[in-house]
Structure formats: structure tokens, C-alpha cells
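Hey all, quick one. A colleague (J.T.) asked me to put the NJP job into the tracker so the inputs and the C-alpha cells live in one place instead of scattered across chat threads. No bug as far as I know, just bookkeeping. Sequence used:
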Amino acid sequence: SKRTAVITGASAGIGEATARALAEAGFHVVLGARRLDRLEKLAADLSGTAHVLDVSDPASVAAFVQQIPQCHVLVNNAGGARGLERVAEADEDHWRWMWEVNVLGTLRMTKALLPKLIESGDGHVITVTSIAGHEVYDGGSGYTSAKHAQSALHRTLRSEHLGEPVRVTEIIPGMVETDFSANRFDGDTERASKVYQGLTPLAARDVAEAIAFAATRPSHVNLDSIVIKPRDQYNGS
Ligand code: NJP
């Protein structure tokens, strides 16, 4: 029978592309996000299942997980950024949103599904963090701090569950063309389009293929992390 992959934030962008790539790779896909109408269309397309999920709401996470009989792969993808304020002007509502979804959302989903992942005999937690989780940039402290925390939480699993049948892979993308920037700037698409600064961003599909590659390695292979960026994007010194 098919292995089951649960994908959070599957209604758009990287999550939607990942649902397609994992279904093509032979997984039964279980899709979660807040926009159920979009999820249901995609699930019908992929012969998967869809359930409403708000990772920032513990009750929603509990209800979602209750409907899943088994889980081999969990893709913690739901996330995003809000605003771009320097520390001196930091907006606490933006910070709270980013920490709730990226950090606590990943924690809640991972905690809730770990028993099923281990029980499957070949579990795999794949978390989409960001290069923002490994460096800093002006105006980015809310997002970078949340992504650093998400990365640290994710990597801790790798050592805590060593010797158990659970693999742990961090996906670290650079710029990807999705609704991410428009959402970050509250629908201001003109500001969002300036983000790419002339470089060709990754497509969501590029990241999805890296996720599918990790998910389809033999069970004794752990890809600790995959850094994937547009050719012309360089960060770091
Ligand atoms: O963004 P977008 P991406 N509960 O906005 C869902 C990281 N990343 O695909 O709930 C459950 O197109 C939302 O669904 P809905 C980024 O940090 C990106 O680019 O229906 N789901 C939608 O499906 C994030 O972790 C870039 O609104 C929730 C999805 O999340 C991941 O990639 C670069 C939710 C967001 O889709 C996917 O982002 C990078 C909630 N409370 C890392 N809130 C980039 N794009 O450049 C939102 O390094 N969602």
C-alpha cells in the first residue's frame, strides 16, 4: 500500500507543488491549510485527502491529526513572513504571527504526528525553513529569528530520535516565486515584485523536487539539509 505524506500549507506555493511532486512519486497525500476550497480541488486532482488546518491553533491541529490514520512523511511547510521593519520599529503583531505559524506551528505538527511517524517504521520529518534561518538581514529580524528557531527545533529532532525509525531533513530555500512576498507586504504586489532585484527566483516546483528527492531516498539514508537557491543569489561572506 501507498506511503502517506502529510503536507502543511498545501493550498499554495511550495506546499501545493510539493503535494503534486509527492503524489507523482507514489505517496498518498494528505493536505492541510486554512483555505479548504483550494485544498479540496487539489486533493481531487491528486486522489489525496484534504482537511482544514490552522497550525497556529492547537485545537485545529488536534482535529486535523485525529483524521489521519497513518503518516510516513510530514512536510512542515506552512509559514511565511509579515512586514520588514528594523528592530527599532518592530511590530509585535507581525512577530507573533511569524512565531505562531513558523515555530509553534512546526512544533505542534511534529509533536502530534511523531508517534505515527515512528509507528510507521520509516518516518520522515521534512521542514521548510529558509536561508533566513541561517543568516540575518536588515528589517528581517522577526522572520529570521522565527526561521532560526524553527531550524533549531527541527535539528534537535535529529539527535533526540537517533536510533529510531525517523529521518529528519531541513529544506533551506533562497528566493522562490510564490505569494510569499505579497503576503509579507499585506497584498502590496508592487513592493513584493521589487524583492527579486533582477534575479530569476526559483519556481515552487524546484523546491518541491528537492523535497521529493529527500523523501524517496532509501530508508537508511538521511539527507540532513538541502540548500537550494537561484543561480545568481549569493548570501554569506
Ligand atoms: O508561501 P505562500 P511559500 N495554518 O504564501 C499556508 C518558506 N520560504 O509557498 O492557510 C496552516 O505561497 C498557506 O495556506 P492558507 C516560507 O517561510 C519561502 O513561499 O490556505 N497553513 C499557504 O498554503 C514557508 O515556510 C520562500 O493561507 C498556513 C502556505 O502556508 C514555506 O517556504 C523563501 C497558515 C504559504 O504559501 C512556504 O511558503 C524561503 C496557518 N496558520 C522560505 N498560514 C520564498 N517564497 O521566497 C499560512 O527561504 N499557511
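Adding what we noticed when we looked at it: Residues 8-9, 11-15, 33-35, 53-56, 77-80, 101, 128, 130-132, 173-176, 178-180, 183 surround NJP (CB under 6 Å). The chain has a mean pLDDT of 97.
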